[in-house]
Design brief:
The protein is α+β, with helices and mostly antiparallel strands and about 150 residues long. The chain has one domain: Trna Endonuclease, Chain: A, domain 1, CATH 3.40.1350. About 35% of the residues lie in helices and about 25% in strands. The strands form 2 sheets. The protein has a 5-stranded mixed β-sheet with strand order 1-2-3-5-6, sandwiched between helices. Strand 2 and strand 3 form a beta hairpin. The longest helix has 25 residues.
Length: about 150
Amino acid sequence: FVAHALVVPSVDPKDIEEHDVNVEMAAMKVVWAFEEAAGAKVLDVHSPELARKAGLPDNPGFDILSVRSEKEKRAIEVKGRAATGDVEVSANEWAKACNMRNGYWLYIVYDCATPNPRLVRVQDPFGILLAKTKGSVLISAKEIVQVSRGSNA
């Protein structure tokens, strides 16, 4: 006699939210390490309190401010995915990408639920990604990878 068990992910909203938070935190750690390795001063501005501490408005439209030099600052929106998948950008984030253009970066960390997360980076996502609007902006994983700059500085 052989027994089989089917394990399915929880559909409890509390479990889903906790999983999403863990994935986002894993992504933030990957991005933070990448920017520090590039010699940047990294500021977490993902919450109103942290943004105010950095001298920014409550909702700056990005998660990390990376200061690489006096002339190079990156406003980085971080998205994490447990595996791969499309990325949803809020209207506020997309507006900031539109206004900041080359100073705005979208860093997506795929495979956060694995031992080998994969960082892809897109400078000026507003200028080079096609997006479908649905109240927020949806960008396909395939397109992000096609235009990304990989994980090099």
